[in-house]
């Protein structure tokens, strides 16, 4: 595990160099052991997602915000793929580390940086978009209370908007998630009538009403 910071520094520095100058040669990695941690040419989406999330978490401690945001954008694009979204809970965070990327992703909903919170909500939206298996996992890992908190209390309108969109995606055709959302909403924002998650018009009306209250 001691190799991780050096590997991430190498990855970030060379990514930045390549963006600034396409002719810049890529430096050799710090060691074979570090290369083995993720591999030089990160081939699989799972490896790329894990590495991006480590950068997002600022595991090294000196990664600039722009680099973290770029890693988050890359991560979001990958979780739009249904297979990647379904695989989130099976991916190891780093070699020999704990499995599951949902927990470190949800932790970013509490970031001090507004753009990081916004991107975290957007990633949740992209991952759960009306797929029952991902919706079920999102419910069990506790994603809904965190999004409800953002939707109702975050000082940023953009963060609140993205959180509402993510909640709407989590609830589409999945009554258990919708019921959990409503259970965590403050009384002032609870619907007056029961909503059917399979009724698109009813769900749209609920989302529109929530947006009018919170945005």
Automatic annotation (TrEMBL):
Gene Ontology cellular component terms for the protein in this record: endoplasmic reticulum
Signal peptide start and end residues: none
**Role description:** Functions as a nucleotide exchange factor (NEF) for Hsp70 chaperones which accelerates the release of ADP. Required for fully efficient Hsp70-mediated folding of proteins.
Give one Pfam family, short name only.
HEAT_2
Q: Where is the Nucleotide exchange factor Fes1 domain?
A: 5-88
The molecular function GO annotations come to: adenyl-nucleotide exchange factor activity
Q: Does the keyword Repeat apply?
A: yes
For this protein, the record's InterPro entries field holds:
ARM-like, ARM-type_fold, Hsp70_NEF-Inhibitors, Nucleotide_exch_fac_Fes1
**What is the protein name stated in its UniProt record?**
Hsp70 nucleotide exchange factor FES1
């Amino acid at each position: 595990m001691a190799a991780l910071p050096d590997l991430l520094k190498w990855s970030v520095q060379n990514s930045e160099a390549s963006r600034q100058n396409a002719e810049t040669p890529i430096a050799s990695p710090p060691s074979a052991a570090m290369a083995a941690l993720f591999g030089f040419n990160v081939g699989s989406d799972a490896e790329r997602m894990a590495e991006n999330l480590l950068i997002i978490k600022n595991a090294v401690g000196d990664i600039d915000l722009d680099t973290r945001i770029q890693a988050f954008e890359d991560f979001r694009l990958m979780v739009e793929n249904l297979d990647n979204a379904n695989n989130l809970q099976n991916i190891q965070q780093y070699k020999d580390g704990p499995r599951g990327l949902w927990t470190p992703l949800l932790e970013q909903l509490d970031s001090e940086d507004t753009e990081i919170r916004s991107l975290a909500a957007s990633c949740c939206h992209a991952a759960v978009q009306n797929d029952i298996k991902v919706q079920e996992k999102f419910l069990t890992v506790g994603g809904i209370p965190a999004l409800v908190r953002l939707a109702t209390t975050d000082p940023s309108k953009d963060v609140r908007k993205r959180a509402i969109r993510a909640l709407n995606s989590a609830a589409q055709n999945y009554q258990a998630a919708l019921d959990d959302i409503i259970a965590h909403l403050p009384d002032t924002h609870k619907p007056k009538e029961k909503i059917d998650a399979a009724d698109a018009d009813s769900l749209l009306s609920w989302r529109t009403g929530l947006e009018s209250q919170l945005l």
